[in-house]
Amino acid sequence: MPTSYSDATVPVHRLFEAFGAGNMDGILSVLAENITIKAGNPEYASKVPWYGTYQGQSSAQDFFTGLASNVETEAFAVEDLVGDGSLAFASGHLRHRIPATGRVFESDWALRCEVADGKITHYQFFEDTAAAQDAFA
């Protein structure tokens, strides 16, 4: 999976493992207290429940709980995970079924994280926002 390792990739890799296992304590353990999460386009938060900006660990927990409760993950592949200094980048492909509609949301994705002292301080996830909206329509 990883193209290159750095200290910045370690918490990102642990985040993927914890989220895949449904381990909220594991997720929170790699997030800084003052984490900023940006997911999708906040303009579409009324259509895609996890879209928006989240500040702090409590809000981050809301983000990850909201994401997990609104999708049934059929596939989530991390194809690349690279880091340099305090930055980590990951990319891959996902396929989620949306229980509320029964529709499938499939997209390539990218993630940019900033890391300090072994914790993720900034998390920004990119995906096909039009496809996500369609899956909830």
TrEMBL record:
Domain named SnoaL-like: residues: 12-123
Gene3D superfamilies: 3.10.450.50
InterPro entries cross-referenced by the UniProt entry: NTF2-like_dom_sf (IPR032710), SnoaL-like (IPR037401)
Pfam families per UniProt: SnoaL_2
PANTHER family for the chain: BLR2505 PROTEIN
Protein name stated in the entry: SnoaL-like domain-containing protein
Annotated source species: Longimonas halophila
